[in-house]
């Protein structure tokens, strides 16, 4: 079937005007009279003319598109970040293309190549769990493509970062358990190859040391992905222990919810016997009984802040914002799971 797309030349021929006049009339150029603009716009609408956005992008050297690489969009934290990104981008005339690395370094590298070819104006990234070396992002940096990282960020080169203070947040969560009367506080941690989970573990330890409580290594359990299933296994490990914790700080809400469910089935009362605190304020934290005390990690605001910083970099080309770190303040939300 023959391609029937209407072009600028078609409009110009029908209206007996030059293609450049047609282009300027459609772009509302002040040099073109209102009468000509109306005439051109009317004909364009009648014929179903649509501007060639790709050609326009080449002319402007901008695509008005932002690429986003998230580990997993089915995790509530990342879906909220993406919502924040899209909201701010849309309000500022940008489109968003989203990719999932699925926490795979190989996949992350492949996505970067795709984004280079798509000529996006900038990229927002949360590193995969497997990413230890950021050379593929350093190349993007050298090409002058604006980059902003959120949550899991590089430590081996200067770049824009939007983070929270994971150490301080974990300290606050653990301190709350201590002040609630807990003497033996356990911790379910994420992978220690990831900086944010290292920081949460250190914040937990620092709070215990400050209040002169022992850091019992047997009460610190490690997971790979902080999944619900891993939380169940950790809860079962605690149940088998001869010295059980009376408080547990979990590095995310999924593991906290699984601990509550396993403990309650075993006849352990929450929070009377064991107080629980999670991290991230997922929707399930307000559904589980008892409602879960958790840290609000400001995911939506993180997405907004990342996009705001990226667009500044795209539009202002300001060297002073090529390596800025913004730390968002978190909040401890106290609910029934930790009030003894």
UniProtKB/TrEMBL annotation:
Keywords: DNA-binding, Transcription, Transcription regulation
Protein name: LacI family transcriptional regulator
An MF annotation (GO) of this entry: DNA-binding transcription factor activity
Organism: Algibacter lectus
Start and end residues of each HTH lacI-type domain: 6-60
InterPro entries: HTH_LacI, LacI/GalR-like_sensor, Lambda_DNA-bd_dom_sf, Peripla_BP_I
């Amino acid at each position: 079937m023959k391609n029937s797309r209407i072009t600028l030349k078609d409009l110009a021929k029908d209206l007996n005007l030059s293609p450049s006049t047609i282009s300027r009339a459609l772009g509302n150029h002040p040099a073109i009279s209102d009468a000509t603009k109306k005439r051109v716009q009317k004909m364009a609408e009648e014929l179903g003319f649509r501007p060639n956005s790709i050609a326009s992008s080449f002319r402007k050297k901008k695509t008005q598109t932002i690429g986003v690489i998230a580990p997993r969009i089915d995790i509530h934290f990342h879906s909220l970040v993406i919502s924040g990104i899209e909201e701010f981008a849309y309000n500022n005339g940008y489109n968003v293309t989203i990719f999932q690395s699925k926490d795979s370094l190989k996949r992350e590298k492949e996505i970067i190549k795709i984004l280079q070819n798509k000529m996006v104006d900038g990229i927002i990234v949360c590193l995969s769990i497997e990413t230890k070396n950021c050379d593929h992002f350093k190349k993007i940096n050298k090409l002058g493509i604006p980059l902003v990282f959120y949550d899991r960020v590089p430590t081996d080169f200067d770049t824009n970062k939007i983070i929270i203070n994971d150490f301080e947040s974990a300290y606050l969560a653990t301190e709350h358990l201590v002040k609630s009367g807990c003497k033996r506080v356990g911790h379910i941690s994420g992978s220690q190859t990831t900086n944010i989970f290292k920081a949460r573990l250190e914040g937990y330890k620092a709070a215990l040391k400050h209040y002169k409580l022992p850091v019992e290594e047997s009460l610190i359990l490690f997971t790979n992905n902080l999944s619900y299933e891993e939380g169940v296994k950790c809860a079962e490990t605690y149940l088998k222990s001869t010295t059980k914790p009376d408080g547990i700080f979990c590095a995310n809400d999924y593991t906290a919810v699984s601990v509550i469910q396993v403990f309650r089935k075993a006849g352990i009362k929450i929070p009377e016997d064991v107080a629980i605190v999670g991290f991230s304020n997922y929707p399930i934290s307000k559904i589980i009984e008892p409602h879960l005390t958790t840290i609000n990690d400001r995911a939506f605001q993180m997405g907004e802040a990342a996009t705001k910083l990226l667009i500044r970099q795209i539009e202002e080309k300001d060297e002073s914002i090529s390596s800025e770190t913004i730390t968002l303040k978190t909040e401890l939300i106290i609910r029934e799971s930790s009030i003894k």
